[in-house]
Amino acid sequence: MWDEQKLLEVVRKHLPPTAEICREDDWARRVCVRLEDVDGDGMQEIVGTYHLEGNTYIMGLKVDESGWQLVANLIGSHRYPHDFHRGGAPYYWYYLAEAQLKANMPQQAVKSIESGWRLKEAGPSRESWLELLQQVRIELVRQTVNLFPASVKTDRGTKWGYINDKGQLVIDPRYDYADDFQENGLAIVTLLDKNGLIDKDNKYVIVPKYDTITRFSQDRAAVVDAAGFHVINDKGEILTDKPYSFIGMYQEGRALFSQVDPQGTSHYGYLDREGKEVIPATYQSGTDFHEGRAVVQARPNEFILIGRNGERLHTFSYANVGQSGDGLLAFQETENGPYGYVDENGNVVIPPRYLTAQPFEKGRAIVNAAKDFAENNQYGLIDKKGTFLIPGEYNDIHSLKENRVAVGKARDPQRPYLGSKFAIADTDGKIFTDFLYNEVMEYQDGKASANDDRHTFFINRGGQIDRFFPMLEGSGTLTQENDLVKALINQRVSYYTRTGNPVWRQNTVIPLTDQYRVREELFNPNKDYIVYYPRVEGMANKDAQNKINDRLKDMSQVKPIPANEQLDYSYSGDFSVEFFRKQLLEMLLVGYNFPFGAAHGMPTQTYAHIDLVKGRMYQLKDLFKPNSNYVKVLSEIVGNLIKNDPQYSYVFPGSYKGIKPDQPFYVKQDALYLYFAPYEIGPYAAGFPTFRIPFAQIMDIIDTEGDFWQSFH
């Protein structure tokens, strides 16, 4: 007869030196070790779980002639200590399959699912098995594709293609942007400002023709064209029978949609996976479905909890009601009043007392206990009784999944809008680290990407740096992509092996000809200030080359910036070669200044027009004959476009007064383009209003014998 002590003696012989046996979170604190015939061979095996360096492991021991042998040892779910004694062998197979999936062993996970599914004992629900099987299938597809987006700087701008896990370009860089391959084996690509879908063989499922394609969710995606939103399947077929003004992502077989009536009012309803209106558009607003529930607003002070077919489950007479989570909903009794929580029957569970309140998840919710927005944030974590597990005193708290949160203290308590330094805590309130990190992403498979002032790395569930993965210089994020680590650091995508060896990095030299090239330089004096700027090489006149490069640095905002001071804004800058013909090099210099605490930042763009032979930069006036009155001619052309072309209907009435003599511009082979800054003549959302003027339309004023024209003709 085996008792707990004997089982522990056997298990401890196979544990790593610093590992601790898990104990269940109940009053008895039972150890998570048991005897179970998990493989159905009539012989009992020992199954156990243990903690090591912030991770939870599942292990299996099987006896043979020489004694107990370790046959399974994998990083698994943090749920093991909670669920360990709730069932028999099916749970073992379920958690083993889950652990095998986390360890990139999907084929083995399929076999474990098959083993557990066959057993007749009580175990995980059918839905849980099917959900896990779907995750395994997704991983199988992902490993089959094994292609990763990679960028190359060229004399036609930055182009994107795909590499394999050896860093070899498998799909040539021809796209203006390329997204990751998704679970269905498709990837979104951008070409000439239009989006399409390709498969792993670089064959179009959808040629680039849509303004937007969203990521797939439940085998469905939304596409946007001039008519509006549509739903497509993974074959690129449109399922909806009319366009909509909005379609959200599918959740639990439903997608929120809206349509606008002749008075301009939006009405919301829900589509099923076939693109049919399963819940008509009769509501003023709606949430995504979660746990089979959604919240819709019928009219002011009337919110309704509905089921998947639109059935009314409860009506709430409040100013605002949020999404259901764990059976509770955040609500406001009055507009601009504090938030509390009600249950799905309308009973007040936590009275209104919070400035903001997020949905509950696994018995926890993030709230802000400040009295008003003029007061410093007081974020905390509460349970379903309203008890603070993490006190309401922090500048930020973010959910990281896997029972972890990032807890943030203000960098400068007098200026909390400058952001936070984060510590890692669990959802019971135990804080594992000091306030070390600038950013922390959500946990996945027991690790999360994080960065500090100097490096980017993975941390484990204890908040410690995971030394089994690369630590890279710079600020950004890491994700594990099969056997590679994808790094988006300092606004550049690169790939590494798990041991930190580089597999792919974007080139830093752009060849133009055998003689000329552009070299990328990095200026990063402060964690919140980063600029990539160009340096031209190969010009015969070195003095002119040096002057041009000095000018490019100035135009790129390379200037004295304090290294160790906290700026009250962030700035990023970059460049691309947009046009190169004959001896004219045209480069686009872009920037984005974001004041911390602002609703959005301000983008800038400037073109440099460089004659590589004559060693000069051209201005707009250099394109035209002397005394041609080009300002008047071009102003009239732009004015007529604004007046007669519907695409410029967004221009503010009366805002256009003509162009300036030094109006921002760029050229292509057959046309001149004039543009304006955001807000100058149109709304922020319009970006840089741009007007194309074919050269054929203005040939009579162009100085065709001048240096500018001759530089690219």
Automatic annotation (TrEMBL):
All residue ranges annotated as the DUF3298 domain in the record: 621-695
Pfam families the UniProt entry points to: DUF3298, WG_beta_rep
InterPro entries: DUF3298, PdaC/RsiV-like_sf, WG_beta_rep
Protein name (Swiss-Prot/TrEMBL): DUF3298 domain-containing protein
Organism of this sequence: Brevibacillus fluminis
